[in-house]
């Protein structure tokens, strides 16, 4: 008599990269909020800087009779986006690589694109939370006008999203710099501070030397800051920009170009494991 063997159970298909990415967003948010020092710095830095500079220079004006606090809000909002994307991500990934977390993800078969998407989702959520904390303080604590209408809010939104995505891919890219996580963190932090001064965050951009303006124009923060000014400042203030206008087209082009450049660099340089030596 022939024995009939039961049919083998069908194999469960592995989850898609998109499904893994969605799950990674939630996990990345949990990991982010577990790092208390990083959370406090990311959320408190823009707020503290706004309080300090408003107390010291709140009575000053920038070109076009724009109150200093209104001008500064655009710059510190842009800086906050850079902190939660470029700086926080670059240091976090370098640390994850050094302590072996990335290697474990590789062993589990995590697609790199799902890992990147998880980080991008985490950055977008934390950026929104950070701005939700900063803007009400500026509005109700210092009477800073918010974007005047829907068009200005939409400008604020696309500038923030493009800036956050550019910071995300560049943060992933710089995390691959050689050296320990501590040395990578030091380098990223120092570069971020210098870039803030070059990009017109603390001073009027037109007040900076021309060579500093030209150097800043290479990097995304200058365009992110200028885009934020176009959302928060009155239209008359555009005449006092270097180009005599807000340059929305060029701002979008530069930020989008950095997203593409950063993505290409990520694909070519990202590694799960720390390089020997």
- Taking pLDDT < 50 over at least 5 consecutive residues as the criterion, the unreliable ranges are none
Strand content: under 5%
Global morphology? elongated
How far apart lie the N and C ends? 66 Å
What's the β-strand tally? 2
Output the radius of gyration: 22 Å
Q: Strand pairing plus helix content: what structural class? A: mainly alpha
Percentage of residues assigned to helices:
over 70%
Question: H/E element string?
Answer: HHEEHHHHHHHH
What is the count of helical runs? Answer: 10
Mean pLDDT: 89
Total discrete domains: 1
Strands ordered across the widest β-sheet: 1-2
- Main pleated-sheet profile: 2 strands, antiparallel
Describe this structure in words.
With 277 residues, this protein is mainly alpha-helical. The chain has one domain. It is built from 10 helices and 2 strands, in the order H-H-E-E-H-H-H-H-H-H-H-H. Strands 1-2 form a two-stranded antiparallel ribbon. Strand 1 (61-62) and strand 2 form a beta hairpin. The longest helix has 31 residues, at 68-98. The chain is elongated and about 90 Å long. The mean pLDDT is 89.
